[in-house]
Structures are given as C-alpha cells and as structure tokens.
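ingest -> validate -> predict -> emit
validate: passed (alphabet ok, no gaps, 79 aa)
predict: started
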Amino acid sequence: MAESAHQKIEQVAQQVGPKVDQLQQGLDNAGQAVQQQAEHLRDICADWTESLRGSVREHPLAALATAAALGMLLARLSR
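emit:
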C-alpha cells in the first residue's frame, strides 16, 4: 500500500512539475512587464515634471496666478 501511494505521489509530481514551471515562468514574465511599465511611468512623470518646471520658469506670474486660483477653488470645495 505504501509503495502504491509512493507511485501515485511520483505520478502527480511528474504531472504537476511542468505546470509549476510554466506558472513560475508566467509569473516571471508578468513581473518583468510590471517593472517595465513602472519604469515607463517614472519616465513620463520625470518628463511632466521637467515640462512643468520649464513652464514655470518661462511664465512665473501665470504659474503663481494659476496656483492661487487652484488654492482658492480647493478651499471653497473643502468647506
């Protein structure tokens, strides 16, 4: 009986082993895709930040007026 159970366990291990390897490979690929997407988003954020800095440097009064208007709007909305 123990030998029969051992054989069954060995059969299951042989059948499940490749599936586990496929799952691991899929998870690795998904992890790489997430890392690439995160890097892409960081690049976009850096581009936006640099663009905003450039706009503020070119038009400081407009930036100040926009910030004040947004601040007043947020203050009114929060009441």
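Residues 2-58 form the longest helix (57 residues).
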